[in-house]
Amino acid sequence: MANNIYIISLSPAIDYILKFDELKMNKTNRPNNVEMYPAGKGIHISMLLNNLKVKNESIIFSNGDFEKFFYKNLDLMKIKYKKFNSLGEIRINLKLIDQNQTECSVTSSEIENSELEKLMQYLKENVSTNDYVIATGSIPTGVNNKIYAQIAELTNSLNAHCVIDAFGDSLKYAIEKRPFLIKPNIEELSITTGSEIKNQNDILKAAKQLLDKGVQNILISMGDEGAIFLNKEITQKCSIGNWNKQLVNAAGAGDSMLGGFLSEYIKTKDYTKALKMGIVCGSATAYSDKIASLELIEEMLLSMDSLKIINIE
């Protein structure tokens, strides 16, 4: 029986993308391309898994006048979802892209405790042994920072696997519940551990602090430096491949890495293969306008054997 994947989005968004040849401050700028589509870390993961034809369900908290646009587009992408209510409008994030990328990220709407209780009940009624529950993204205003810890504790009680992609206090509390996997980037790892990170040794030292506190597995995304995966048994680094493609949009690359990693791990139970798949999917999205298509991922997979895995002692 296939594992089900549930992806919780407390902070979904609509991304409004404006692209320019050159963005000039204090001037009237006219974009050469405009796009608008559903987004947020959990939505990105669901999109990537859908493109890989991996069964998943997004659990989304939203409200407001822009919902119709948001869910119409999810329907077009054939993303399965379960909706719960937030108190205000779904947020719209602005991204200005020329040779640089500037993002304006809006705070998410509040969620009433009664709706969070409905979420917990839904998980109790639907999550089965060895399923995966992914909790990702920022915590909305007014929601307790322990919410991901509560989700992790419930997931563990259901004999399922909890994955957390967060940082700071919300991740610290969740770590106490021994999640199956966390996926910080270097900045998030630094914030969560309170460590200054200047090199690879600093990365490993900070990550091992979290392993000692109970995290089972850690996937650290490092942009164009690739990624590091570690647990109590292995520590591996994988660099990105030589695909001779241009960076288009880094938004969603880390989420795609996580989605690719999980899809391969669930299929093979092989961390090394999963790490390589994560690198491929994260890179493919960085080379795309949106989340990577299956066609691009399959093209890049032809070179997957060239990805170098370094075992770190």
UniProtKB/TrEMBL annotation:
Keywords carried by this UniProt record: ATP-binding, Kinase, Nucleotide-binding, Transferase
Ranges for domain Carbohydrate kinase PfkB: 14-286
Entry's Gene Ontology cellular component terms: cytosol
Presence of keyword Kinase: yes
Pfam families: PfkB
GO molecular function list: ATP binding; phosphofructokinase activity
Highest taxon in the source lineage: Bacteria
SUPFAM superfamilies to which the protein is assigned, alphabetical: Ribokinase-like
Protein family (similarity comment): Belongs to the carbohydrate kinase PfkB family.
NCBIfam families per the UniProt record, alphabetical: 1-PFK
Protein name: 1-phosphofructokinase
Lineage of the species this protein comes from: Bacteria, Bacillati, Mycoplasmatota, Mollicutes, Entomoplasmatales
